[in-house]
Amino acid sequence: MSEIVHPLHRFIRPYVTSTTNCPGCGNGIAAQAILRAVDELGMTLDDFIFVTGIGCSAWIPSPFFDVDVLHTTHGRPIAFALGIKMGLPEKKVMVTSGDGDLAAIGGNHLIHNARRNIEMVVICLNNGIYGMTGGQAAPTTPMGLKTATTPYGTFENPFDISELVIAAGATFVARWTTHHARQLTASIKKAIQKKGFSFIEVITQCPVQYGKKTGSGSAVQMMKEYKEKSILLKEAAKLSKDELHGRIVVGELVDKEAPEMLEEINRMKKKVAGEKA
Amino acid sequence: MAKVRIYRDLCKGVEECGICVSVCPKKLFQPSAALNPKGYRPPEMKDETACTGCENCMIYCPDLAIAVKRDKAAKGAKR
Amino acid sequence: MKGTRVQTGKYFMMGNTACAEGALAAGCDFAAGYPITPATEIANRLAERLPQVGGMFLQMEDEISSIAAIIGASWTGKKVMTATSGPGISLMLENLGFAIGVETPCVIVNVQRGGPTTGMPTAGVPADMVQPKRGSHGDYEIIALCPASPQEMFEHTVLAFNFAEKYRVPVFILSDAFVGHMREEVVIPEAGRIEIVNRKVTEIGTDPQKVKGFLDEDVAPMPIFGRGFRSHVTSSCHDEYGKRNLSDLTALDNFIRKLSDKILKHKEDIVRVERDYEGAEVVLVSYGAVSRAAKMAAIRAREQGLPVGTLRLITPWPFPSEEIEEMARKAKKVIVLENNLGQMYPFIKAEAACHADVSFLPPRVIGEIQDPEAILNRIREVMK
């Protein structure tokens, strides 16, 4: 009797013997959700180019996925990704990055590329903390939480990153938690096929830095909390802003059509060529 | 109903992680007797015949350390 | 002629325009940038011309994303460029280090202006001569070219692209507001007479696990994206295969040394100087716009029977130490002329001081080019 093989192991870089995640890290669930999306679409990783910044989420494809990957500087993966898409428009460009990388230092690039609606998929692993450097407060850390750099509790309002990206003009925005692994895969599939800037926020557990420091508990407890706090978009529509306090609104928040940047550039180039002739 | 393979060397432990134990609707995982070479304690299945093939353990394992292959369509499994 | 890469002809052309035309002639496909005086004309020209040849210019949200976008595009095989001034280079420095670390061909034009900080945007001061070499963190080597005319803005830009492709390294054009905004005769030759170098790329079909895309002193073929190489291109310390190593110091040593040796080993091919000091006792060392004044001073000095020569640095980086030393052995006095407080001077002095007396002459007012008469006065002084 032959042993069964994990259907997604074929996507893993041959020299990688295990993930670099801490035990229970939600990034691993998201990583698998991405690979499952690729698999279910009948695509291969050679159809993709991954771009990452700095942080634990940057290590989702690097070195784990057997794929072309550009592991860049803190906050900048989306800017690099734009250049890659300009050079290889037929490839799917995907960015995996954290809330600190994308919404703090990288906020400007996130905003402008959502505005440009350039075709790419950006997956934001939002664990509400700077995990790799040991648990410092992030722009998404809830008010009052004690972290490495806010030992008396945070005193800043946190971001709703998805709202920011919607306002900037992205045409596909979804938010799920690591409790919603199957829905996440479904949204990733949609995002990959979407002709526009797709943004997927994944509320993900960092049991070692966030969990321990803030007393939020183990990976399992954090995922249970996501399950309890989550509320689907259409259910949330029935509640008031006060009633939604502390809840995580999940679902496909925006899915619309708008001019995509590469299409506009091609239109312009044809015009220039026409004038030349 | 399904075959389950646990990649012991990839696992990061039922105590430190334990997600598979938590997401299995039939509560079929328990700690195994031996540690793996990294010092983590992988799970083992109490009774593979009771597995419905829902694939939760496979889908939720952050280390891709569990593989599930259904013998036939599992009752109640989400797709 | 509109719509062709090489606009062959004789022109009365601005330095910045000639730079953009040089990029097109060299095969530039993609450029990104952000408006900044005195470099903006380059961006404007590229925005107009690149789409005519099937390429593209993107104005980005800042200089950081400008250099990031061109690096990304370079990894798809494109020849790329960005142009800015000192404040913009300051923003680009982190990603400059990234380009160097993962060995990415790209051209970065700095049309220098009076600094520090916002300073005087229209003053042609070579204020950032050491910035390419020491501005980004860590030990590294860089290639930089210093044009002294609009003609050289064209020629050096082509050369910069060729060096970038050959050595898989960012190459700087260190111009300034004078040379960038000055108009002079520029001759653009026929396309067939312009040498173009293209990067070596990993052979298609190579087993991804066997691709050695990095850290070869003789320049590894570039495993560009989209060809199935599954290239792992990381800013982290890595080995020849691109595999990350954050624990072994021997890996870090290898990473640092190989990147530097890739340039240092090929200095003979890269370093360019202009020598005119046969029989000279006093040698004027300069670069860029100031070299025009040095040339004029040397001509007048010789007319008066003074044994004066010039050495012009065309590539301030990698530092032409051998060429400086060779000159200093033959000279008695060396006068370094720069339109700043002496940025290359300490490096020149370090090489030359054991062989000759080395001194520095700034202009009367920083921002002005030295008056040839003032240079002559200094020559007479040192010869006493």
Shape descriptor of chain B: globular
Q: DSSP strand (E) fraction of chain A? A: 15-25%
Number of distinct helices of chain B: 2
Stretches of chain B where pLDDT is under 50 for at least 5 consecutive residues are none
SSE blueprint:
The complex is a heterotrimer of chains A (about 280), B (about 80) and C (about 375).
Chain A: H1 26-40, E1 48-52, E2 68-71, H2 77-87, E3 92-98, H3 99-105, H4 107-116, E4 120-126, E5 129-130, E6 136-137, H5 161-168, E7 172-177, H6 181-193, E8 197-203, H7 207-214, H8 219-229, E9 230-232, H9 233-236, E10 248-255, H10 261-276
Parallel strand pairs in A: 1-2, 1-3, 3-4, 4-8, 7-8, 9-10
Antiparallel strand pairs in A: 5-6, 7-10
Helix pairs in contact in A: 1-6, 3-4, 4-5
Chain B: E1 2-6, H1 19-23, E2 29-31, E3 43-45, H2 56-60, E4 66-70
Antiparallel strand pairs in B: 1-4, 2-3
Chain C: E1 9-14, H1 15-26, E2 30-33, H2 40-49, E3 56-59, H3 63-74, E4 80-84, H4 86-101, E5 106-112, H5 131-134, E6 143-145, H6 150-167, E7 170-176, H7 177-181, E8 183-188, E9 232-234, H8 249-264, H9 267-270, E10 273-276, E11 282-286, H10 290-303, E12 308-313, H11 321-330, E13 333-337, H12 345-352, E14 357-361, H13 372-383
Parallel strand pairs in C: 2-3, 2-4, 4-5, 5-7, 6-7, 11-12, 11-13, 13-14
Antiparallel strand pairs in C: 1-8, 10-12
Helix pairs in contact in C: 1-2, 1-6, 3-4, 10-13, 11-12
Molecular structure report:
The complex is a heterotrimer of chains A (277), B (79) and C (384). Chain A has 277 residues and is α/β, with parallel strands linked by helices. Chain A has helices at 26-40, 77-87, 99-105, 107-116, 161-168, 181-193, 207-214, 219-229, 233-236, 261-276; strands at residues 48-52, 68-71, 92-98, 120-126, 129-130, 136-137, 172-177, 197-203, 230-232, 248-255. In chain A, strand 5 (129-130) and strand 6 form a beta hairpin. Chain A starts with 25 loop residues before the first helix and ends with a helix. The two termini of chain B are 16 Å apart. The model of chain B has no long low-confidence stretch (mean pLDDT 92). Chain C folds into two domains: 9-193, Rossmann fold (3-Layer(aba) Sandwich); 273-383, Rossmann fold (3-Layer(aba) Sandwich). Chain C has 384 residues and is of the alpha/beta class. The A-C interface holds A 13-15, 45-46, 49, 51, 54, 62-63, 66-73, 76, 79-88, 91, 108-109, 111-112, 265, 268-269, 272, 276 and C 2-3, 29-30, 32, 51-52, 54, 56, 58, 60-62, 64-65, 68-78, 80, 94-95, 98, 102, 208-209, 225-226, 228-236, 243-244. Strand 2 (68-71) of chain A pairs parallel with strand 9 (232-234) of chain C, so a sheet runs across the interface.
